[in-house]
Model the fold of this input.
Amino acid sequence: DGMHEFLMYHLSACGVDLLYNTSSAWLTVIDTSGPCLTLPGFLFDRLRSHVPMDCPFPQGGKAWGRFCSPRRGGAETLPALSFQLEDVSDTPAPKLHLPL
Done:
C-alpha cells in the first residue's frame, strides 16, 4: 500500500506558517504511487503566494484538475515545506524538510 497518514504540525514554507489562524496540525496523506503534491485549496493559495509558479488559472481561482508547475531557473531556488511530527511546548520538536 502506497498511502501513509500522519499529523503534520506547524507546516511552513519560506519561514511562513501556512496553517496560521487555521490549526497547528493537519492530517496528511502521503501517496508514494504518484509524483504530484496535492493540497487543500486554502493551503495551495497560501503556498502559491510565496513560491513562484506557473498556473493556467488565476490566484484564488478553481483548478478544475489543471496543474501548476514551479518556476525554475535563474537565481531562484524552490523552498522546502517544513513541518514537525509532534507539537510540544517545552522542547521544540525537530523539523523535517520536504524539498519542492
Remarks:
- The longest strand covers residues 3-13.
- The radius of gyration is 14 Å.
